[in-house]
Specification:
Elements lengths: L25 H15 L10 E4 L11 E4 L4 E5 L9 E3 L7 E5 L4 E3 L5 E2 L4 E6 L3 E2 L4 E3 L4 E10 L8 E9 L4 E10 L2 E3 L2 E2 L5 E10 L4 E8 L4 E3 L7 E6 L2
Parallel strand pairs: 1-2
Antiparallel strand pairs: 2-3, 3-4, 5-8, 5-19, 6-18, 7-17, 9-10, 10-17, 11-16, 11-19, 12-13, 12-17, 14-15
């Protein structure tokens, strides 16, 4: 009878068994197929997810199904509890983003006005979601995003100052402080301590697609010059979920 020797699926011969084999010898083929399947899928102790490669979503999925969408080049993972209502998490493409930006020159900030910091130089921008013209990050998809910013003034300065990460809600047309750090330099009476300011702030934003994040600073008294040292004045972030 025609019976190949195989340990894995790739070793099976599609034309076996031949038409001349007796029905009674079929058990040899069945045992071979069972051995090959157990060797090829040793960890399949329950329903297994598959990897689907095509331009449209698979009509049947389980939690853990991986779909490579050939129409967009995006790898997706079904995270839903049931396959009936899949929830696709992008593993690359628009949802995979990270950036770090600095300022090419110092920036003089006016008195008593919240001013957007001039982050115009990208160290890296994976996903191309930071706009150096508008000085802001735009969320490519809905999700949770982590941001961090730091600053140092370029000269001594005596005032109460603020550093804030702003959230721009495109659906509502609003832009306001989401997280803020303040430095109070007045210690007694009308006198201020004159010092080179340093501040740092981090936050996690729940964002919809097209919402924005940017950095603003504010001073109460006199002009304030923001330094552009790349290790002390920067803005960075990435999508975490």
């Amino acid at each position: 009878m025609a019976l190949e020797s195989a340990n894995y699926v790739s070793g099976l011969v599609a034309t076996n068994p031949s038409g001349s084999d007796s029905i009674s010898q079929g058990d040899d083929h069945l045992r071979l197929i069972k051995d090959v399947l157990k060797n090829s899928f040793p960890d399949a102790d329950q329903a297994v997810a598959t990897v689907v490669v095509k331009g449209t979503a698979p009509t049947t999925q389980v939690k853990g199904t991986i779909w490579y969408d050939t129409s967009t080049g995006i790898l997706k993972l079904n995270t839903a509890a049931t396959g009936a209502s899949p929830s696709w998490l992008n593993l690359n493409g628009p949802s995979f983003c990270s950036f770090h930006v600095t300022m090419s020159s110092s920036q003089s900030l006016p008195n008593n006005v919240y001013t957007k910091l001039n982050f115009d130089t990208e160290t890296f921008d994976i996903g191309s979601n930071f706009n150096t013209t508008n000085k802001e990050f735009t969320a490519p998809v809905a999700g949770k995003y982590w941001f961090n910013t730091a600053m140092r003034s370029s000269s001594t300065h005596g005032s109460d100052d603020d550093l804030a990460i702003y959230f721009g809600d495109t659906s509502a047309g609003t832009n306001s402080a989401y997280a803020q750090e303040s430095q109070f330099n007045q210690v007694s009476g009308p006198a201020y301590v004159t010092a080179s300011n340093t501040m740092n702030i981090s936050c996690i934003m729940d964002m919809d697609a097209s919402d924005t994040a940017s950095v603003f600073a504010h001073t109460e008294t006199g002009a304030w010059t923001m330094g552009n040292g790349s290790t002390v004045t920067f803005f960075e972030g990435f999508r975490i979920a």
